[in-house]
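stage 2 :: seqdesign
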């Protein structure tokens, strides 16, 4: 039996699958892995959360990066792999997508936002750090570029920041709790495009496995957790996922 057929069989046998995605999911959409050579953090220094909060100069720098498109976190299109995951969600096979990505591509491929658990936030909008109100980037961009205004909350005047989790910022508790619950309730967890080295996010596949779920890993490179997995394939996600039988 070839590899894709074995993965199909695992999916068929599952009653509740959870998908866990990392940067490799979106490299096939042209978004570079931010930790790789040529990725964003090899080209510019991260702005830590405390720096953003404490320094107007750093906030100006952060927003300049965001609005110049330098981060390349958004604006890409979902790829074959995203659409394959969205089909599994639509059929009720996949109940949740836990993602380390901030690019909003799972939602854009058709996965309902309520079923996407974002561990590192979302770069396609901003939120107030004080009251949590959502702010659209297009609106903030106009006043930043037009009048040089650093975004402030229209309700409470709090600091506004893209909805990503920055270096030095606490992990989002609600998302972490939902990811734990999803990992504990699934009977199959499929890792797509994560090298599983960034914790605590990388702990969820192991949590599922230790709780009795099957673990499948699709990644171009070997991962730290290959040795624990029931199925491993080192290949392009789009190709593997597109080959899943449509009846799974
Ligand atoms: Zn506010």
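stage 2 :: out
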């Amino acid at each position: 039996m070839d590899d894709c057929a074995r993965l199909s069989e695992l999916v068929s046998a599952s009653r509740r699958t959870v998908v866990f995605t990392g940067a490799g999911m979106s490299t096939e959409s042209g978004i570079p892995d931010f930790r790789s050579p040529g990725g964003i953090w090899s080209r510019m220094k991260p702005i830590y959360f405390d720096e953003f909060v404490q320094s107007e100069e750093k906030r100006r720098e952060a927003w300049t990066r965001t609005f110049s498109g330098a981060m390349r976190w958004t604006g890409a299109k979902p790829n074959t792999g995203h659409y394959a995951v969205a089909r599994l969600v639509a059929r009720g096979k996949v109940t949740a997508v836990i993602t380390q990505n901030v690019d909003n591509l799972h939602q854009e491929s058709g996965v309902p936002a309520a079923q996407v658990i974002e561990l590192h936030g979302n770069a396609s909008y901003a939120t107030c750090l004080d009251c949590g109100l959502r702010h659209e980037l297009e609106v903030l961009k106009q006043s930043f570029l037009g009048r040089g205004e650093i975004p402030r909350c229209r309700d409470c005047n709090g600091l506004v920041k893209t909805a990503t989790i920055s270096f030095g910022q606490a992990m989002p508790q609600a998302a972490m709790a939902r990811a734990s619950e999803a990992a504990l309730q699934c009977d199959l967890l499929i890792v797509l495009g994560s090298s599983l080295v960034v914790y605590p996010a990388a702990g969820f596949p192991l949590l599922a496995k230790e709780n009795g779920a099957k673990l499948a890993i699709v990644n171009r490179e070997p991962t730290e957790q290959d040795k624990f997995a029931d199925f491993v394939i080192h290949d392009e996600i789009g190709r593997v996922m597109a080959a899943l039988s449509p009846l799974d």
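stage 3 :: structure notes
- The chain has two domains: 1-30+77-119+172-248, 32-72+121-164.
- The pocket of zinc ion is lined by residues 128, 130-131, 133, 153, 155-156, 158 (CB under 6 Å).
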